[in-house]
């Protein structure tokens, strides 16, 4: 084994091997796309090391037994402008070459760029006008929406002082060394200066692969509930959730402090969350039903209307299946351990075609453009300032190898390779 690791390969050999492995993964992906029942797409755009705009596209596929697979579909270079028409034409050219079955598409998730989500001049708008696309859902990345909500928090009076202190420490080597020594001396948790970042707990919850849309909606709703609780406690001058403020009051010997500015800050954030997350208002009732289809308070008329509208299903058929399901003793007995994707796979296709289709479509939904953002981090490493001459095809091949979860058929690839006896 060690002799294999020490074997020297030429640049051309390594290039060919990467191309071959990437082609194998791409072929596996195409087979999965052909066999999946529905899929969703997420789009995002960023520039590489030589300022070429790269359009990254991920696909989330759902199959008959309800599992979901997320993979890099393609990365497309945009050599000139990145207007809505340029993005649309580039993607449609890829669709034509790859024979992507757009009729299976359920939704598109994008960031909030005007070229993507503009109602009349955005990429999504062009897709909805095109006859090549079916009726599909489209929504703004939930992580971007959360970030925009966070921007409303105005703590300039605090952050300006904090950033001034941080910059003064970081600007001089001696200051930074003395600062680190002081932290070590006092036994602090961190032994260096932590620079300002916008990341919080909710942001981390929204990240990651393979999360169902219901998990994301739950995280956002839980955060809004916590905000309401904080607001109500501040209004009652109850500072249990603000221990530092409470300690400072005790230190100053004060019984109370003017809390109106803090109440206003929390109210502003809550209002922004309510305003920005309207994209998921129509999805949330359906997600709740899929998690609790046997609840006593299920509004059959409301759920029927939402499901039929979201996924272009026959309302009468959906209503009939919901009533049948809620009185299906056998299915109820199998749901004692909770409702999951496996539960909806128990439903017979002949008996519950509409509800199965609804479960498939909901499972296929992306909740953010997190995968695209992660791919761009890999892209910055692969096509760095030391590899700026990397071609677009080779960038796509390397990125696919770095991100794919598929296992290569090494025996097949080895058998197809010609042995070079001269080596």
Q: How many strands appear in the DSSP assignment?
A: 5
Oligomeric description of these chains: single chain
> Beta-sheet strand percentage?
5-15%
Radius of gyration: 26 Å
Task: Give the neighbour order of strands across the main sheet.
Answer: 3-2-1-4-5
User: Low-confidence segments, ≥5 residues, pLDDT <50?
Assistant: none
Helix content: 55-70%
Please state the structural category. Answer: alpha/beta
Could you give the order of the helices and strands?
HHEEEHEHHEHHHHHHHHHHHHHHHH
Secondary-structure map:
Layout: H1 2-5, H2 11-35, E1 38-47, E2 53-62, E3 68-78, H3 84-98, E4 105-110, H4 114-117, H5 123-129, E5 137-140, H6 142-150, H7 156-171, H8 173-185, H9 201-206, H10 213-235, H11 243-252, H12 260-276, H13 284-291, H14 300-311, H15 315-326, H16 329-334, H17 341-345, H18 353-364, H19 370-382, H20 392-403, H21 410-416
Parallel strand pairs: 1-4, 4-5
Antiparallel strand pairs: 1-2, 2-3
């Amino acid at each position: 084994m060690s002799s294999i690791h020490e074997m020297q390969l030429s640049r051309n050999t390594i290039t060919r091997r990467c191309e071959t492995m990437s082609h194998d993964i791409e072929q596996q992906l195409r087979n999965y796309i052909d066999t999946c029942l529905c899929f969703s797409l997420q789009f995002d755009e960023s520039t590489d090391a030589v300022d070429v705009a790269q359009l990254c596209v991920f696909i989330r596929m759902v199959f008959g037994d309800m599992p979901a697979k997320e993979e890099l579909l393609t990365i497309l270079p945009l050599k000139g402008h990145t207007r809505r028409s340029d993005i649309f034409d580039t993607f449609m050219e890829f669709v034509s070459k790859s024979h992507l079955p757009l009729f299976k598409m359920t939704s598109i998730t994008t960031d909030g760029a005007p070229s993507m989500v503009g109602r009349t001049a955005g990429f999504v708008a062009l897709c909805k006008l095109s006859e090549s696309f079916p009726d599909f859902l489209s929504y703004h990345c939930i992580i971007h929406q959360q970030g925009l909500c966070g921007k409303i928090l105005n703590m300039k009076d605090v952050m300006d002082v904090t950033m001034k202190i941080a910059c003064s420490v970081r600007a001089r080597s001696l200051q930074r060394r003395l600062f680190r020594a002081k932290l070590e001396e006092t036994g602090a948790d961190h032994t260096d200066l932590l620079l300002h970042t916008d990341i919080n707990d909710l942001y981390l919850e929204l990240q990651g692969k393979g999360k169902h849309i219901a998990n994301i909606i739950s995280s956002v709703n839980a955060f809004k509930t916590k905000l309401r609780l904080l607001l109500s406690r501040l209004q009652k001058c109850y500072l249990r959730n603000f221990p530092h403020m409470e300690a400072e009051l005790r230190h100053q010997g004060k019984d109370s402090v003017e809390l109106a500015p803090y109440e206003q800050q929390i109210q502003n954030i809550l209002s922004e969350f309510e305003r920005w997350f309207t994209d998921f208002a129509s999805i949330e009732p359906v997600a709740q039903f899929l998690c609790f289809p046997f609840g006593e308070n299920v509004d059959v008329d409301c759920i029927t209307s939402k499901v039929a509208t979201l996924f272009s299903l026959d309302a009468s058929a959906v209503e009939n299946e919901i009533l049948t399901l809620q009185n299906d003793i056998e299915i109820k007995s199998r749901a004692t351990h909770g409702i999951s994707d496996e539960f909806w796979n128990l439903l017979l296709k002949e008996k519950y075609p509409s509800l199965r289709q609804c479960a498939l479509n909901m499972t296929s939904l992306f909740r953010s453009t997190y995968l695209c953002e992660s791919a761009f981090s890999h892209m910055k490493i692969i096509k760095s300032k030391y590899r700026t001459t990397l071609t677009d095809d080779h960038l796509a091949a390397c990125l696919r190898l770095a991100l794919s979860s598929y296992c290569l058929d090494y025996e097949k690839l080895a058998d197809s390779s010609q042995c070079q006896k001269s080596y």
